[in-house]
Amino acid sequence: MSAPPFVTAPPLSGVPHGFFGREGGVSLPPFDSLNTGLGSDDGAEKVRENRRRAADALIEGAPLVGLYQVHSPDVVIVTEPWDEDGRPKADALVTKTPGILLGILTADCAPVLLADREAGVVAAAHAGWRGAIGGVTDKTIGAMLKLGADPRRIHAAVGPCIAQKNFEVGEDMLAPFIEEDPANARFFREGARGKAHFDLESYVAARLAGAGIGTVWLAGEDTYGQPERYYSYRRATHEEAPDNGRQISLIGIAPEAR
User: Which architecture, in CATH terms, is 65-251?
Assistant: First the structure.
């Protein structure tokens, strides 16, 4: 059995990590094939097998720790694994415990993986627009600092997410960003239908840079526009699909790093 394909970020080289897509799993249509979303109508055993395949591609046999994601800025520091039924409601994970993989699910939102190799601290964050403006990346970095990380040493990678050209938004979303900072207008542009389009990837990158992160890498992969490679909640909505899968992004510390 070959490992499912995944994207890696050069600045995180040497740290077990990967942004997985929808390829290389066991789920049948319409979830084909690496659906890792426990909340979908896909069979639970298939989802668990897909999650295991992704985890084993990075650290074989490592426990995978995830969350019940709620589009919040909340962060959990992980010291030991928990059962999937005991997942806390939050949107970011931080650890300095070797041998654990942190997992974030997305289907258009931005997955963010971070690492300070010297301090031995890694993190994973789920940044939808609500979590992003709410400060999920800022709070993730703050939790990393509590474990000994230094923002000047932290490298961050923003994985596949919906591209601006496909992210049409209403005035109700535009308003809080402009209220936060009028300079945020640069992350919006008018689309073909005269409505604003939001650049989630660039906004998340700007928040990371503004928090003092010196290296921010962008995958530049559009989840909406690549149906063969990625799940997309918005695309599924436009296609009136009854359900949609989720891709997973993982990061951890190799056991030998003790």
Answer: 4-Layer Sandwich (3.60)
